[in-house]
Structures are given as C-alpha cells and as structure tokens.
Input
Amino acid sequence: MGFSSAAIYVLLGMCALMKGSHGLLARYEAETGIKPVYTLLRVNMSNNYTVPIYRLNDYYTVRLCLDKDRNVTVTNIGYSNHEGSDNISVSYDNYTEIGYFQTEEDYSTEHMWSIMRNSSQVGSKTELRQGPHELKITLVDQHDDHGIELDFIELTVDDTDGSFDEVSFWCGSLFPPPM
Ligand SMILES: *[C@@H]1O[C@H](CO)[C@@H](O)[C@H](O)[C@H]1NC(C)=O
Ligand SMILES: *[C@@H]1O[C@H](CO)[C@@H](O)[C@H](O)[C@H]1NC(C)=O
Ligand SMILES: *[C@@H]1O[C@H](CO)[C@@H](O)[C@H](O)[C@H]1NC(C)=O
Ligand SMILES: *[C@@H]1O[C@H](CO)[C@@H](O)[C@H](O)[C@H]1NC(C)=O
Ligand SMILES: *[C@@H]1O[C@H](CO)[C@@H](O)[C@H](O)[C@H]1NC(C)=O
Ligand SMILES: *[C@@H]1O[C@H](CO)[C@@H](O)[C@H](O)[C@H]1NC(C)=O
Ligand SMILES: [Ca+2]
Ligand SMILES: [Ca+2]
Output
C-alpha cells in the first residue's frame, strides 16, 4: 500500500542519513576478548558481565584492526560507578589521549555497580591509519578507591563504501565472556 511504501522510503532515508553523517556503530562488550580478563557477573548490566577498573592507573585495552584508514569516534562507554566520581582517560596508541570523562557520583543505593551509565561521546573523530591499534581506557583519578566497572564500548566508524566488517575491526576477538 501507499502508506507502507512511503514508510519504507522514510526508513531507508533515515538509514542513509545515519550512515552518511555518523558512520556505523561498532559495539564491544568489555568482558569479551581473546586475553583472559577478570570479569564480574552483573545480571542487570549489558551481556551480564562487567570488567573492573578499580585501582588508579589501571587500564583496559581493546585492539582494533583497521583494514584501511578510517575515521573513528568513541561515541559511548557504558560503565557503572560506586559512590564517588572518577576521571577516565581514553587514548589510542602510545597514550595519545583523545579525551576523558567524569563518572557520575551516586551514593543512593547499595546496588550501584548494577546501574548502567553512559559516558556519551568522548573526544572527537580521529583518523586511524590502516593496521593495528589499541584503544585504552584508564582510571586517571578517583574520589574513592573503587574506580569503575566497564560494561561496553561503542565506536562509530565511517564507512563510505560499505566495506566495513565488524568482526575483523575487533581483530576477530568477539567471543563470549569467560565463565
Ligand atoms: C536487577 O533489576 C531487577 C529489576 O529491575 C531488580 O529487581 C534487581 O534488584 C536488580 N538487581 C541488582 C543486583 O541490582
Ligand atoms: C543473563 O542472565 C540471565 C539469567 O540470569 C539469562 O536469562 C540471560 O540469557 C543472560 N543474558 C545473556 C546475554 O547472557
Ligand atoms: C576523516 O574525516 C576528515 C574530516 O571530515 C576527512 O577530511 C578525511 O578525509 C577523513 N578520512 C578518511 C580516511 O576517511
Ligand atoms: C581528568 O584527566 C585529564 C587528563 O587525563 C585532565 O586533563 C583533566 O583536568 C582531569 N579532570 C579532572 C576534573 O580532574
Ligand atoms: C608507538 O611509538 C613508537 C615510537 O614512536 C612507534 O615505533 C610505534 O609504531 C608506536 N605504536 C603505535 C601502535 O602507534
Ligand atoms: C546507554 O547506552 C546504551 C547503548 O547505546 C543504551 O541501550 C541505553 O539505553 C543507554 N542508557 C541511558 C540511560 O541512556
Ligand atoms: Ca568510583
Ligand atoms: Ca558488559
């Protein structure tokens, strides 16, 4: 019918717009990965697990394998925080900082490690060269001694010719969490 085809055109238009202006969303659960990581069971968090970054200067690293030069934006980092606020630095290779965010302070309940929070975009769009890279998320300052728990990472990757492959972008490391 006329209505449904119009609706489909609107949807296609929205997809094209999203793709053109923002690129594709690539999502990585912190608890997945080739290297064994220390995970915590948090049933209310994304994919049921988080990874603690509790001590000052502790960091979490995810490898990126770029098939060609691409613009990448850290659009969101999912985390939970207990009590005091923390300063989280986000950097690429060799500690080239792209930005940082302050975690939200919350003293309200005893279940704060199970409250999902979003950083929103960190830093600006960065052109990454073809080849391997590392994205680091580091606890650079904290109000108490408990840092954060990292839930997931969302990057937006420009893909002008439709060649983007998410599995190879994460260097083939999209595995289920260790149990
Ligand atoms: C998880 O969410 C459910 C439903 O909102 C809630 O009843 C439960 O207390 C939460 N668990 C934790 C550990 O926060
Ligand atoms: C999370 O755990 C619940 C049970 O606690 C299970 O039903 C659900 O399938 C799990 N989700 C994932 C993504 O593993
Ligand atoms: C990245 O974005 C900049 C600014 O929008 C653009 O000039 C550049 O060509 C882009 N690089 C790649 C590899 O697409
Ligand atoms: C957070 O850390 C960055 C450096 O990583 C620093 O430039 C910034 O001033 C810090 N912000 C606060 C509020 O401590
Ligand atoms: C880090 O810096 C060294 C020395 O400048 C350079 O050889 C190396 O390629 C850099 N590593 C990355 C992943 O950019
Ligand atoms: C946080 O981000 C995730 C992933 O984009 C989204 O599913 C969730 O609704 C967001 N939560 C809030 C409170 O904005
Ligand atoms: Ca904290
Ligand atoms: Ca998770």
